[in-house]
Amino acid sequence: QVQLVESGGGLVQAGDSLRLSCAASEGSVTDYTMGWFRQAPGKERDFVARLGRAGRNRYHAMSVRGRFTTLRDKSSNTVYLQMNSLKPEDTAVYYCAARNSLRTGSWDDPTTFDYWGQGTQVTVSS
Question: Are 94 and 6 in contact (CB under 8 A)?
């Protein structure tokens, strides 16, 4: 099964940018729908973005649309989340996840994703 490792989180100021990476092993990012979720303290895990297996279909949550973009590099088997114009409310642990092609259910529901990374903390100060 695919293994996912996130990196790139950190402490930044409002308005700054960060790029999160999700490196995959034991499987290809082209075989899964790849998703990004985030979880703030005391809150549920929320959908942020997803990228289809063909690498063309992208969808971003309304709260990040126009500021965040998900993309991938097949050669390095890595998915990225480019985050611009960060806001304090973006503070959370960010997770990448992979969903098998046979899965059904809402694309925004974290329970429909099969494999998860360990998460990376993003903190945005005002």
Answer: yes
